[in-house]
Specification:
It holds the Pfam family AMP-binding. With 641 residues, the protein is of the alpha/beta class. It has 2 domains: 18-496, ANL, N-terminal domain (Rossmann fold), CATH 3.40.50; 516-637, GMP Synthetase, Chain A, domain 3, CATH 3.30.300.30. Bound molecules: 5'-O-[(S)-ethoxy(hydroxy)phosphoryl]adenosine (WTA).
Amino acid sequence: MSDFVGRPAPQTGTHCKPKQYDALYRQSVEDPDGFWLEQARRLDWYKQPTVGGSWSFDPVDIKWYTDGSLNLCHNAVDRHLADRADQVALIFEPDDPASAGRSLTYSELHGEVIGMANALKAMGVGKGDRVTIYMPMVIEGVLSMLACARIGAIHSVVFGGFSPEALAGRITDCQSRYVITADTGLRGSKVVPLKANVDAALALDGVDVDGVLVVRHTGAAINMLEGRDHWFDDLKSDVDCPCEPMAAEDPLFILYTSGSTGQPKGVLHTTGGYGVWTATTFNYVFDYQPGEVFWCTADIGWVTGHSYIVYGPLINGATGVVFEGVPNYPDHGRFWDIVDKHQVNILYTAPTAIRALMREGDDFVTSRDRSSLRLLGSVGEPINPEAWRWYFEVVGDKRCPIVDTWWQTETGGVMITTLPSAHDMKPGSAGKPFFGIQPQLVDNEGAVLDGAIEGNLCITHSWPGQARSVYGDHDRFDQTYFSTYRGKYFTGDGCRRDGDQYYWITGRVDDVINVSGHRMGTAEVESALVLHDKVAESAVVGYPHDIKGQGIYCYVTLNAGEEHSEQLFAELRAHVRKEIGPIASPDHIQFTDGLPKTRSGKIMRRILRKIAENDYGALGDTSTLADPSLVDRLIEGRQNR
Ligand code: WTA
């Protein structure tokens, strides 16, 4: 039986119909250089590129548009002054709906970005310098990114929910000499002490910067260190600040993301290819029409915020919403209040938010109008069909197509999705490859799998938005993404392809877990746990969680003489939050006298995953364990929890 739910009535003025998709896709894979040079015309270039891709996956060397030069701040801001200076670029919706919001036209945005760029220059920031941005979801966060792009500095945004320790690691890894932050931030009426966290990070051993730029947001009292800390208001100025011409392959930003091993990696994106990719995907995937209001609920601390709050929408001259708060404050109807208040046409959010709101019942949704909505998007993790249907039927009144967009920090923008009015939708399937994307499924040995089948998802050809490296560690880039299946980009995701050539992402197949749409390396949580002086060893796995998608399950062995207790559980939880941040809070800690290891000492995570999932029937071969009887004790421990 067909699992299509059909295609809602075609919208007016759509960018792509079914036959056009087929033709464009064919062209994009048969003549990628021609196709992507054509798409590059979406941007203004100081020097229009004549070269498309120059890349190899073995050895790994990825470049696009090598002879082009441009500036993405110019593309996102200045070039719109000619025909949409008075159109709203950004609408700010504060945490507290009773507080005053604000909106900036493109002309006002231009003035504010120049103010921020001048403040950065006044601190000494120049082309190629790394600037760490640790901000709440306020317009100044967007300004910070654009101001860096304007003067050729490389931004590294760190999510405001990360702890001082995590922030410090990200500052030192890229030798960033500058930080932009705010006094405090607000999320669901809770205060986030951003500046105090920056102070704490900079007080750690070996962490040092030349300047901290502080945006006054809530007006909370904070400490300012003479000579190092500067108020944005004191340094900003409106003297002319032209955009710095950048080579297409000059770095634009670093964004830290979790992998299966070690500490987070600084994924590096460059200017030209990333700009073309975000501009093109935004245009087609969201089928954006001039004048529409687009709202991506992500945080600028994640790649979704980079590509679809900042670069994609602004390069396209769209009107976007910047929301400081959370979906359940003051009540579970907040999203729909915002949709009505700002007449949002396109909403782009995460399955975890959809599931959390679905649980609260339909009244919060149906009591709001929502008639402005035209298109809905999902990103960050697989969306279960039940949540998909609720999103489609209740939120979108069955009128609005859903785009379930699969992509990653490393891909720069959307890779697999249906396109509105080009494709029928299937709940739970991301759909078809975007232009230029050639997915391939392989088995664990790397053999290519054809037809309707499940396997490990690789991409065989480069695309303009692809990450170029891991900052400062190109070998790690090669090792992480191109060595599992030599010559292919390996995504780390499992995927099924059905008979209609639709792709269904099944989730990570490596040691990365996806908690509320946030990527987390189990290795990071493990190293945080063993830092605690009572912990001897730990192993962390994901397990299915109704709202978060995956929860964090930790197995912990204690040092000799230590007793486990509820209090120690709370202590370890607090410890992980301090080391990484609240998003890494363990959901369960199971104390155990040992971890299942092979005789050569390798932890058998497969077994730990199954036990955490309460799935004891499929433990597989346990005979190679050094201590097979441990499995029964682990199961008992799981059941007694
Ligand atoms: C997962 C977020 C299924 C996937 C843009 C990927 C998804 C990881 C989807 C990247 C989706 C993202 N369906 N899974 N529509 N979107 N993922 O780097 O496992 O924060 O590898 O980028 O999220 O997470 P990241």
